[in-house]
Design a protein that fits this description.
Layout lengths: L1 H17 L13 E9 L5 E10 L2 E6 L12 E4 L4 E4 L1 E6 L37 H6 L3 E6 L6 E9 L5 H4 E11 L14 H27 L7 H4 L2 H4 L4 E6 L2 H12 L6 E4 L7 H7 L3 E3 L15 H11 L4 E3 L10 H8 L6 H6 L3 H7 L16 E4 L11 E6 L2 E2 L5 H17 L1
Parallel strand pairs: 1-4, 1-5, 6-7, 9-10, 10-11, 11-12, 12-13
Antiparallel strand pairs: 1-2, 2-3, 5-14, 7-8, 8-9, 14-15, 15-16
Length: 430
């Protein structure tokens, strides 16, 4: 009995160690200088053999190092010759930390019941102990935008950094946006689809619901002392221009409809998905609309489209002067975000331009570019060192990463499992 009890205790201790969550990092007690690396600034510039300095959570220096003197006794020097330094990648429109196991309902906390949930805050549901988070940041994704889903008005999004004890510590930009799901305006002609009349009726009802909600909220916010209504109150910062509006919409007709709708409230929505954006570039440019573009690794939107249409769309938007960032749906899937961006380098964008789609471009769209998105003095020291090109899955091997100047633990569940079973099979060879 005693042997069985000891074995059980040992097993539990081993299992807890195997799946232990990495502890959030701490600020270094002296300045850090990364020297000799290729610095990919995220703003289109690249410095070969550069030097970047970090102190008190901020970037203090970026350059060749010719004009500074580094005191090796008072600083920590990281030799990084032949390696690459990047700003932390940013993943918008994600449910990372809001979902753990897709097949288990109890672990999914990204969707509320009902059609209008403007008062819902994704931030307070964020689980910093998610085992998925460490696997994502192992590919350089150090910030994400938590975006609720479901209904017509999904709720409020927030931007978080991925090394924190709780959601309060994680918040970078709390409740920075409101997510709206625009109804599909495409008529599906298939045996299994509802009739044309029913589809048009459903679309009309959803549009009417959006119009009614915003109209009621506008009237509510114009009252001097209204009876508190949390759903309507949530739109006050939207009308005041303090909160962005993100609209999930794919079709060109829907994009035009959404932009024209919000124009009456003097708002410029950020269009999320935007698969057919290439059809209305002139309209988007004229209206000054920004996009969070659907992932590139997908099938074309239409049967007659070129097979590489999703890959060439970003180059079309770039040449038209339309600001856009890149996204990947889901939560664990976003670890492949840099490789989606890397694909663009073969379809009309340079490597530096492709990098911007997941760094500075996205930071500007989310309103966090003052502190994140590029390697510049005065910005947050949120960056990582890669053994090779971080946009290539073969060479994206992180050797160190910092979030707000704190060196983070790059271990994760997948690495632990790999080590566990590789050790097993190595031992069997002996």
């Amino acid at each position: 009995m005693l042997k069985k009890l000891c074995f059980l205790v040992f097993t539990l201790l081993f299992a807890s160690k195997l799946i232990a969550q990495p502890v959030p990092g701490k600020l270094a007690d002296k300045p850090i200088f990364i020297v000799g690396a290729t610095l990919h600034l995220g703003n289109g510039e690249v410095i070969n053999g550069g030097v970047i300095g970090l102190a008190l959570g901020k970037i203090t220096y970026v350059g060749t190092g010719a004009e500074i003197r580094i005191d090796g006794e008072k600083s920590t020097i990281i030799e990084a010759a032949g390696k690459h330094v990047y700003p932390g990648f940013i993943a918008p429109n994600s449910i990372l930390g809001l979902s753990e196991v897709e097949s288990v309902r109890a672990t999914r906390d990204y969707m509320e019941t009902g059609a209008s949930n403007a008062n819902v805050r994704a931030l307070v549901a964020y689980n910093t102990d998610s085992k998925v988070i460490p696997t994502v940041r192992s590919n350089g994704i150090l910030l994400t935008q938590l975006a609720p889903q479901g209904g017509v008005i999904s709720g409020r999004s927030s931007v978080v950094q991925l090394d924190a004890w709780n959601w309060e510590d994680a918040a970078v930009s709390a409740d920075e946006g409101l997510y709206v799901n625009w109804p599909s305006m495409r008529i599906v002609d298939a045996w299994w689809a509802p009739s044309v009349e029913e589809q048009e009726k459903n679309t009309g009802e959803q549009l009417k619901a959006i119009e009614s909600f915003f109209s009621e909220a506008k009237a509510y916010c114009e009252l001097s002392n209204p009876a508190l209504n949390l759903k309507l109150e949530a739109l006050r910062p939207v009308f005041e221009g303090k909160t962005r509006v993100y609209v999930r919409v794919s079709q060109a007709k829907g994009m035009v409809s959404a932009v024209n709708f919000f124009k009456q409230y003097k708002l410029k929505p950020i269009l999320v998905g935007a698969e057919e954006a290439g059809f209305i570039t002139d309209f988007l440019k004229t209206e000054g609309i920004s996009l969070l573009l659907e992932q590139t690794h997908r099938l074309p939107a239409h049967r007659g489209d070129a097979v590489d249409a999703p890959y060439t769309l970003p180059a079309t938007l770039l040449s038209a002067g339309i600001p856009f960032g890149l996204m990947v749906d889901g939560f664990w899937q976003i670890r492949n975000l840099p490789f989606h961006a890397g694909t663009l380098a073969g379809y009309g964008l340079t490597k530096a331009q492709a990098l911007q789609t997941i760094t500075l471009n996205t930071a500007r769209i989310l309103g966090i570019d003052k502190n994140y998105g590029s390697l510049e003095a005065g910005k947050s020291a949120t960056l990582f060192i890669s053994a090779g090109d971080a946009l290539d899955m073969r060479t994206c091997i992180l050797e160190a990463a910092f979030i707000d100047g704190r060196k983070i633990d790059l271990n994760n569940k997948q690495k632990e499992l790999y080590k566990r079973f590789s050790d097993k099979y190595e031992a069997e060879k002996l």
